[in-house]
Design brief:
This protein has one domain. 26% of the residues are buried. Strand 2 (47-52) and strand 3 (58-65) form a beta hairpin. It is built from 4 helices and 10 strands, in the order αβββαααβββββββ. By secondary structure, the chain is α+β, with helices and mostly antiparallel strands. Residues 13-22 have low confidence and may be disordered. Helix content is 22%, strand content 40%.
Amino acid sequence: MKKNRIAKLLLIFLIGAFVITACTQERNITVSYQMKDVKEIIPSYQLSIWLEKPDGTFVKTLFVSEYLAYGGYLEYGVCPSWSKKAHWDKVTKEELDAVSGATPDPGDVKLEMKFNSDNVPDGEYNLFIQVHLTSDLNDTYKGKVKFISGKTTVAQIKPYKTKEVKSEDKYRLLSNIKLTVD
């Protein structure tokens, strides 16, 4: 009788562990683009990439340049859309380390990011990229992306103007932006 109960509990535990593992899937996101080397000004090239729900609710930072992550976000005018929404002063050191990386150089760039689907479930999102040039001049991009477990999604990210962020078309830094989720 006791062995039977232990066997049942073990079976329930194994089924539960399987269901939890099956429901949590790693998402791989790749953002690739060409970054222009601007000669007229000296851009900082600080970069942030994040997700929002269609209603504008902040979801998750996917990538942020190390300088920006470790205090640069406090400087006026540096990637202000991300800084305003991310509440970066409240993130854990583990999250900060997981999403920060070297500031990308001009040229062909490919950023690969990973996270669990339980952090960002299937659904539609807006992906934003913001690059700081100088002072309060920033370059912003936006695209819609749909996460569907087990399917590869490709989306185009386009220039985006906001009222709160200064941007000038002549200083558009990024081109051929492509997002792949699998």
